[in-house]
Prior knowledge:
single chain; alpha/beta; 6-stranded mixed sheet; 12 helices
Amino acid sequence: MTELDGTWSDEAEFLRLDAAAAEGTQAEDDEPPQPVVAVVGRPNVGKSTLVNRILGRREAVVQDVPGVTRDRIAYDATWRGRRFTLVDTGGWEPNASGLQASVAAQAELAMATADVVLLVVDATVGATATDEAVAKVLRRSKRPVVLAANKVDDERLLAETASLWSLGLGEPQPVSALHGRSSGDLLDVVVDALPEAPRETDVVVGGPRRVALVGKPNVGKSSLLNKLTGEERAVVDSVAGTTVDPVDSLVELDGQTWRFVDTAGLRKRVQTASGAEYYASLRTKTAIDSAEVAVVLLDASEPLSEQDLRIVTTVVEAGRALVLAFNKWDLVDEDRRHQLEREIDRGLVRVPWAERVNVSARTGRAVRKLAPALRTALESWDQRVPTGQLNSWLSDLIAATPPPVRGGKQPKVLFATQASVRPPTLVLFTTGFLEAGYRRFIERKFREQFGFTGTPVRINVRVREKKPKKK
């Protein structure tokens, strides 16, 4: 997995990354991680309007009906020279059901992963039962909460904000998202609440590793989960699309506890789905994003479909470790095996590094082999190559096979570092553009040398800017 990642010109930055990587620290290929501010609240209190006010531009869609915002949408924001990520969410309601439940799940995930929560309340209405339920959740979360009393459009409404002290979240900050009144004062409070460094949200230390079971409808995800748990944990039916909501289960597998999440079958891209299917797809995408490794279940008895390949691509683009489980292996004869190998060579050519396991959820065949495959993929996902070792190997590789000439000049790779893990990300500092084919060549040789089985590897190329000639 490769991508081009801008330019660099500052020699001091180059040396800083060199020193940081040599010491084994995690140097990011772009800016350091930014703290996250999640904007939450019940529907139609003006969250998206406030987001637009903070950003200083119309980014979030705003309409005078509740429920316009449904997904979590992140924006880069700056105040007093402090950069942070602002996350707009859909309306949160307790005990939500049906389609609204997926919107609430997105808001809950935003609250769980944020560094500061900005709770927006309609000051003209006062604290409702929903506001009190949200406040109760936030008081237990043990993270900074800023209470914004919105729609205070003039002095006469200032007195109404006093009643919001009852929520137990500290002093209400009166603001008018529509007119911008006191928005700067609110941002001062938000920035003061930001931590020096963002929270680590990728891993819960000591907790079970999170595994997402994904695949197209009726491929056997719920049957596999039931076989792993030893109980009817998920509803199973021959009708495709039985599972709608993600189902979490703790599974003891090969002496280790795992948290498996059974998901709805993905028929279409989230953007092209509609109705209940849209929300099921949205929740499945959220399950992939919150997992550490995904098991993509494929029906070995049927030809690989475009949807199978799209699901694999979704996992890779999410940067998650990957295990391919070919289910219904008890229905595969010798002819089908040869045909399947050809389909894999042709269709899954982009992920030859993925772990593969042949299983049968119906009979239980080889389901215990999932644990070693999961562990291998996660170890690779967490793996780091020391900078000195990486540059020594890369120098030998480039000396043997230099980059292709482009525009009459041959680009040079000056320095490389593994900037991060989860997924492993390499940053190459170069004097010129590297062709996509050459970046794939580097990735292939990198895997041959260091392994990284079961995880995507990202390669970012930063081209040195040409300094203007002095007159």
